[in-house]
Amino acid sequence: MNDSIFKEKAKHLSLPLDSRQRMEDSQEVFISTTPEEKLIHPREIKDLRRKLLSWYRHNCRDLPWRRISDSYPIWISEIMLQQTQVQTVIPYFIRFMNSYPTIIDLANANTQSLLNHWAGLGYYSRAKNLKKAAKIIIKIHEGCLPNTYQDLIQLPGIGHYTASAILSIAFKKPYIALDGNLIRVLSRLFKLKGDITKTLFQRSLSRYGQQLIDELQPGEFNQALMDLGSSICLPRKPRCLVCPWESRCRSKRAGMQEKIPEKKKNLKVSVSNEFAVVIIHRGRTLIRKRSHSRLLQDMWEFPTGQIDQEESEDFLEKRIWSEFGLKISSPNLLTNLKHSITNRAINLQIYRANLKSPKVFDRSRITGKWIFISQIKKYPLTAATSKIVDLLRESSC
Description:
It contains 15 helices and nine strands. The protein has two domains: about 5-255, Endonuclease III, domain 1 (Orthogonal Bundle); about 270-395, Nucleoside Triphosphate Pyrophosphohydrolase. Strands 3, 4, 5, 6, 7, 8 and 9 form a seven-stranded mixed beta sheet that branches. The termini are far apart. The chain is about 40% helix and about 15% strand. The radius of gyration is 25 Å and the shape is elongated.
């Protein structure tokens, strides 16, 4: 490894990981501080690199961000791919790049328009951080995405994984980019047991990965591992017979390929009952901007709230009056909708009601707008709200 690059890495012994599937932000990744330490025999390293890159040349996925060498779209794609499937990202990426083709366009983007482009991808703070980072890049880095780890890691929304991926793919620097796929592939290859969220496991995996990465083609090597993990080295029933590393895989030799990496305990899922009410007045309906919660902040939705266990029959009228200062007629239950956010399962009861009083709601209480339903797609909507809109259109409400 180039000494200057190694010294740059060695300064960051505790690096937060923001992997795609992905490890918790609080976890740490460690780079070996002893470059002379040999965890893998040089002949094995050479063979593994050759087989993987040969396989990749014939089997790589044709993805729009791989057709571009510019660091800006590579950065955008990596942010979009956090916590999101590749096939989901593709159309969003294309639309985003058409609307914001340069860092300057992104920095000057209207926040509501930006969130509208992001609507459906989830984790909306990613879009806001992109704009914040773009402003910093223009102010400090003359409009060019920086090409050093120290500078990248200072930008909002960029953690260790994203910085490593950008450096390897866009700038051809040998940083191993440990996302969920790479963690699974390398754990199996070297039969590394342990909790993948623990510091010691992360340290060991980073050492193996850094020694294995191809220094001449680091971007292709990382992307090859990503593709291998997504198409061959699957979480369940890995396709070992067609894997280029089958003969070298220590887990396969031991018959442990489905037991490594060790399974994490599933997070407890909390269940909550909530309501959403479509209030109609003179052909318009009320939507509000979420500013009362960090979750989905600045997205738009119909009036929504939690349903307590012992609510009275007229609970909805009382809640709308207390929160909005509006009187509504007896609401009709339209349907129930199952929805989930991270580890929360939501039973959403959807109501429709007419406004009793013609007066406009108390604007001092909440940010909201009366709009025609045909205008609603102009606003960045929560996923649940988009589903309700689709239901309304289907039923011609």
